[in-house]
Every structure is written in C-alpha cells, then in structure tokens.
Amino acid sequence: MEARDLAGIKIPKSSPLVIKMVVLFILMICGIYVLSVFTNQTTDITESNLLGVKLFDESCVAPNVEEEEIPYIHFPKPQTFSREECRCNPVRNFAIVSMQRSGSGWFETLLNSHTNLSSNGELMGSSERRANVSALYSTLDKVYNLDWFSSASKNECTAAVGFKWMLNQGLMKYHEEIANYCKRYDVHLIFIFRSNLLSRRISVLANSYDKEAKLLNGTHKSHTHSLEEAEILARFKPTINTSVLIQSLNSDKRAIMRALEYFKSTRHILLYYEDVVKNRTKLVDVQKFLGLPVQELRSGQVKIHKGHLSQRVENWENVQKALKGTSYEAFLDKDLRL
Ligand SMILES: *[C@@H]1O[C@H](CO)[C@@H](O)[C@H](O)[C@H]1NC(C)=O
Ligand SMILES: *[C@@H]1O[C@H](CO)[C@@H](O)[C@H](O)[C@H]1NC(C)=O
Ligand SMILES: *[C@@H]1O[C@H](CO)[C@@H](O)[C@H](O)[C@H]1NC(C)=O
Ligand SMILES: *[C@@H]1O[C@H](CO)[C@@H](O)[C@H](O)[C@H]1NC(C)=O
Ligand SMILES: *[C@@H]1O[C@H](CO)[C@@H](O)[C@H](O)[C@H]1NC(C)=O
C-alpha cells in the first residue's frame, strides 16, 4: 500500500478526501494547542524572570505583627546563606528616594546604625544596573531576597532591607514599572529631600568642583567623617550662574513634585533633611514606618558646610538679587542655615 508521510502519520493514498481533511484538521488543532502551550510557557518564563523568582519561606508565621501590617512583611529565603535563628523574623523592603546632595548619605548612615536594618548604598549609581527594566528588577530581587552583599548587610537578622536611590538613576525613567514592582513586593519608599533647594545647588557645585580639584590630597570625597577634611572641603566657594538659577530651582522642584505624584499610591513617608537635622523624632517615625524596634541612631559623618549660605558662595549679592521677590526668596533666609 502506498502512503504519504504526513507528520509521521501514514495516510493510505486510497482514503477519501474527507478522511485526509479530518486528519489534517486534527493535526492543525494539535499544532495550535502545542504552539499555545509553548507560547504560554515562554511568557511565563519571561515574566518570572522579570519579576523575580521569589523564594519565600512559607513555613513562617508572623509573630507579634499587627494584622494590617501582615501584607507588608516578607520571609525571604536567601540563596546565598541561611537566616539561621532569624529565619522567621519578618522583613520589610524599602528604598530611600532622594536627589544628590540632599543629606541622604548622612541619613543612610543613621539608618544603618540600627541593628536590624541593611541599606546597601547607592546601588543604581551603576549605569549597568539601570540599563533596562530587567537589569533593574534583577538588582531589586537580589536586594530584597537578602542576597546583596555590602558592608551594610546584616544578613541573618535583618528586619528591613533596602538601598539609596536617586531620582536620576532610572527611577523617573521607569517609574511605572518600578511602582508596579513596589506594589508587588511591598517596597516602602522613604523620600528625603532638602527643602532649601538653593542650599542643595550650592552643595552640588562644590561637590562637582571637588571631583576635579580633589582637595583632599588628590582624592575626591562627597562625604567625610573627619572635621579636618570637612574644613578643607568647605574652603571652596562656588560661583552660582544666576542667569540660570531660577530655571534650575524650578527644574529641581518639578522633579520632586513629579516623583511624589508617580509614587503617591506606593506606601511612603516624606521627610525633609532640615527637619531630620532639627528634630530627631523624625527618625522614630521612620523606624515605626519600617516596623522596626525603635533604637537610638547615630552617624559618624561630619557636615561639610556650616554657617549661613551667604558665606558659602562667591557671589552672594547676585544670588540675593536673583531670588528677591520670587517664590524662592525664603531660601535666602537667615534661619535656613542648613
Ligand atoms: C534584630 O537583630 C537581633 C540580633 O542582632 C535579633 O536577635 C532580633 O531578633 C532582631 N530583631 C528583629 C525585629 O528582627
Ligand atoms: C539589559 O541590560 C543589561 C546590562 O547592561 C544587559 O546585559 C542586557 O542584555 C540588557 N537586556 C535587554 C533585554 O536589553
Ligand atoms: C595630606 O597628606 C599629608 C602628608 O601625607 C597629611 O599630613 C595630611 O593629613 C593629609 N591631609 C588630608 C586631608 O588627607
Ligand atoms: C550661565 O549659563 C548660561 C546658560 O547655560 C551660559 O550661556 C552662560 O555662559 C553661563 N554664565 C557663566 C558665567 O558661566
Ligand atoms: C518633631 O517630629 C515629630 C514627629 O514627626 C512631630 O510630631 C513633632 O511635632 C516635631 N516637633 C517639632 C518641634 O517640630
């Protein structure tokens, strides 16, 4: 009997056309089914790659956690080590969201002085880690699964884990995806901004000058733990380009407003650097926000700039002229020393 090989099924040449059509039809259906299963699988794979394979320890129950807090806690199961006796200590995910020269470095050292908090620094400062959404997600997954190691990691008994994230480090660019991630993994955002944006501008200028000049024996430092170094760094007074000052302040302000808008439905707390400096109760608010036992927090960092802003810029008179009568006039205020 002669036969044609059609996908491995032998069809006698003599069979009527109807049978051939039926077989073909069945093959088509099978094909579509196989294809659909296959495509389903591939979307599953990419999705779990993007959103991370979470390895939760499901045998843990939340101890002494108020019921409304339960959705916000996690029991990560790190791949690189065992949490040992703290295996079932609940963990909260967070990110400190800020702009350069807004006191967030100092703030982070304060938080890291807590026994149960690990903030891993400015991770997204590396452009590779924020090159695209999947790079971002894989960094976030690693951090929140406690598999990121830095000098700040406390590993086993960490109860709050996160890092410092500047607005211009992919956070605004991928805000939608990041807000989704935050919702999915209950990331708590701690916004810390400087209310005196003029003061921030001055600090940005001084810091970028030092990147070139390297005042400390040829090394650049953005932060310091030494009074002597702070004094050297503070000697330099930048000149502000007053023709673009208002424009830059506007753009800083807009960035902050936009960030708050993008993440308004993410669990967050908003702090101003100046308030934290003046009122240490703000640090209690943060610890409560992260569900941590309240401790006294300390930082070894030394403020680089002291005294009134007028002593920190070369062309203060012009700066005054530029801001008088504008909505930024308050930045010139004597009381705003910070
Ligand atoms: C904080 O860390 C200590 C050990 O360093 C641990 O005994 C304690 O259970 C941790 N607290 C929380 C809330 O995880
Ligand atoms: C995302 O960025 C990383 C790091 O630069 C790169 O290795 C990877 O190929 C990129 N992935 C996509 C999908 O572009
Ligand atoms: C710079 O180097 C000199 C000589 O090595 C040292 O005495 C001084 O303390 C250093 N200054 C700073 C700010 O590191
Ligand atoms: C101030 O900024 C403007 C616009 O960028 C520029 O054209 C001008 O040269 C700058 N002035 C000084 C003194 O740097
Ligand atoms: C200090 O901060 C706490 C907590 O946010 C607040 O309740 C209190 O009013 C603040 N005190 C002053 C003097 O601003």
Automatic annotation (TrEMBL):
Q: Record's SUPFAM superfamilies?
A: P-loop containing nucleoside triphosphate hydrolases (SSF52540)
Q: InterPro entries in the record, alphabetically?
A: Nod_factor_sulfotransferase (IPR052796), P-loop_NTPase (IPR027417)
Alphabetical UniProt keywords: Membrane, Transmembrane, Transmembrane helix
Q: Does the keyword Cell division feature in the UniProt annotation?
A: no
Question: TM segments?
Answer: 21-39
Name of the protein described by the UniProt record: Sulfotransferase
